Amino acid sequence: MSGAYLYRLLKACSYDVTIFDIEHKTNCRISPCAWGTSKGFEDLVGRAGLNPYDYILRSIDHIWFDEIKIKADMLTIDKPKLIEDLLGDAKIHDANSLWVSQYDRVIDATGVARAYLPPIPNDLISPCYQFRMVSDEPPEMRIKISRVGYAWSFPLSDHEFHVGAGSLVMDPVKILKDLTWMPPYSFGKRVKCVCSSNVRLTAPRGSRPFVHGRGWGIGEAIGCVAPLAGDGIIHGMKSALLLLENIDSPVDYERAVLREFSWMEKEREVVERLQSGKTIGLGSALVLQRNTRRMGMKIGLWDAFKILWRARK
């Protein structure tokens, strides 16, 4: 997503851009494939010269967050179609044929792979399992955070959902099977496609360097994913804009990314507290309240505290 978005922006500024990628062996040809996003989507897509309403599948006015109903302003989108339109008629070359020395700059938009930047010490990588399913359940959006991971269900239409789970410590398939809001046939004939992937929950400060030699990272490659909820579509696009705005200064680019996503550091601290089973206080609840509002969720402080307290179990 981040790479396709930046490609469109660079082409609009008359840069000469060549795209390299690996073959994705999934039905939607991308990984990871969660299609939920939040406010800011329309503006960001519009800045790329596309009509955002061509990609919105559902507008969501509430979300069930660990069985607590919360007002929200969220979206599910046709992510594969958006990426396809961002790339247009671009020719995609095999990543194995990339010779870094042939280019003035290589943009690393390889997500967890971080293929053209140095490895990250103490990297937090969560395996995920996700699928599209047909269901007769009401088209509700759900998120559940627990000490061992998180799960989500995003309605794509009245009868189709994108469902998944991720965890730092246990099999995400087990998380899904144990959820009370999952119908018993979820793993049967109504599943349209299944894939697994990994998500980086490290946050940008822990994902440095962002620039190494000719390589400049964007999106998940430099940790632009919210550690608590795992959302990264909006943040990846914002990182692409920051790179474009600071394209001649790696120092200014790093500062801009750290400033824009400084709030993710507190989220990572909460994730680590949940992971270790430490006490959850009002400070952690305030982090959840403030940061979920960035996603369009109108959660109260007491509800945020209850959600995190339950998650410790």
Model description:
This protein starts with a helix and ends with a helix. The chain is 31% helix and 25% strand. Helix 1 runs parallel beside helix 3. Strands 2, 3, 4, 7, 8, 9, 10, 11 and 14 form a 9-stranded mixed sheet that branches. The protein has a 3-stranded mixed sheet with strand order 6-13-12, with no helix packed on it. The chain contains 9 helices and 14 strands. The chain has a single domain (2-311), classed as FAD/NAD(P)-binding domain (3-Layer(bba) Sandwich), CATH 3.50.50. A hairpin with a 4-residue loop joins strand 9 (149-155) and strand 10 (160-166). The chain is globular and about 55 Å long.
Feature tags:
313 residues, three-stranded mixed β-sheet, 31% helix, alpha+beta, FAD/NAD(P)-binding domain, nine-stranded mixed β-sheet
Beta strand count:
14
Question: Which structural class is indicated by helix and strand composition?
Answer: alpha+beta
Full CATH superfamily name = FAD/NAD(P)-binding domain
Given as residue ranges, the uncertain stretches (5+ residues, pLDDT < 50) are none
The helicity comes to 25-40%
How many structural domains does the protein architecture include? 1
Within the CATH hierarchy, at the fold level, what is the topology? Answer: FAD/NAD(P)-binding domain
**First CA to last CA: what distance?**
34 Å
- Provide mean pLDDT, rounded: 89
- Treating each run of at least 4 consecutive H or I residues as one helix, how many helices? 9
CATH uppermost class: Alpha Beta
What integer value in Å does the Rg equal?
A: 19 Å
Q: Largest beta sheet, briefly?
A: 9 strands, mixed
Approximate strand percentage: 15-25%
The coarse overall form would be globular
Q: Which architecture would the CATH scheme give at its second level?
A: 3-Layer(bba) Sandwich
Q: Write the element-wise H/E pattern from the N-terminal end onward.
A: HEEHEEHEEEEEEHEEEHHHHEH
